[in-house]
Amino acid sequence: MTTTAAPVSVASQPELLGQTVVLIGGSAGIGLETARRARADGADVILTGRDPERLRRAALDIDARSTAAFDATDPGALARFFDAVPGQIDHVLVTGPGPSYRPLLQMTADEVRDALADHVVLGLDVARNAAPKMRPGGTLLLMGGTGGRKISRDLGIASAATAVLPPFVAALALQLAPVRVNLIAAGFVDTPLAASYFSKEGLEARREELRSTLPIGRVVEPADVAALAVHLMTNTALTGATYDIDGGQQYVS
Questions:
Q1: Residue range 172-231, pLDDT digits in tens
Q2: Which among 1, 28, 203, 231 counts the fewest CB atoms within 10 Å?
Q3: In this structure, are residues 101 and 115 in contact, taking their beta carbons and an 8 Å threshold?
Q4: Distance (Å, whole) CA 15 – CA 228
């Protein structure tokens, strides 16, 4: 008589267990969904944003370790935040600011400078303040867009503003090594920020257009981007690169 041993089930350990993830702009949209995903994968998360009440609700929703309400584009406030974070940081995601779609000839010189520099300056300020506290192999993730791949009257300065980010991220990855730096380039993602650019009717029309034209047959959601962000945190071979997530939008628009 022979006996067959029962298979042994080996539970995999959460990949972010014991790690700390900071979400700059973590109270809604992509930042909050990334925090939720990271938390489910074992991480402690720290949320920042401008609205204290929205941060409080988000923190309760996902059981965040802590929150900090401040304007991340204020260099002094950003420096004070990172100085106050206890212990080491493993990963940082920066989600803002949003793009500007104003007609080029209606923009002032200061508005053009801000639109072109906002993401780079914020990314550099975050890198400068976070890097001394980050563990080797950790990740700084910046958000950009696929708008830089095409030029149109409707996009205005946004094409130039997004086009500058891939070489900036690549250069920053060399400067910060062994901390890794990557860029997520998103198309339309169904977030409160994206909704703010449309009327109620216009938003639903845009969603329906994407459902009918995108190769994936649906609209990209914040959870899709969060899944990519957490993958970039856990795959330690990835740095200096740009990762598109637009459901194929740039090929059919």
A1: 999 999 999 999 999 999 998 888 888 889 999 999 999 999 999 999 999 999 999 999
A2: 1
A3: no
A4: 14
Distance CA 48, CA 141 (A): 15
Nearest to 123 by CA among 24, 228, 55: 24
Residue 157 lies in a domain: yes
Would you state the torsion angle of the CA atoms of residues 142, 144, 148, 151, taken in this order, to the nearest 10 degrees? -160
CA distances from 172 to 89, 94, 102 (A): 18, 14, 29
Residues with Cβ < 8 Å from 151, sequence gap 6 or more? Answer: 159
Digit-coded pLDDT (tens) for 40-55: 999 999 999 999 999 9
Strand partners, 46: 22, 66
CB-CB contact of 163 with 186 (8 Å)? no
- Residue 143 burial (CB < 10 Å; 0-12/13-18/19+)? buried
Is 4 a domain residue?
A: no
Q: The domain that contains 218 carries what CATH number? A: 3.40.50.720
Measure the CA dihedral 23/126/140/68, to 10°: -20
239 within domain boundaries: yes
Question: Which pTM was predicted?
Answer: 0.90
Q: Which pair of tokens denotes residue 120?
A: 């780079």
Nearest-angstrom CA–CA distance, 23 and 158:
23
Question: What total of structural domains would you count in the chain?
Answer: 1
- Domain interval for residue 210: 20-252
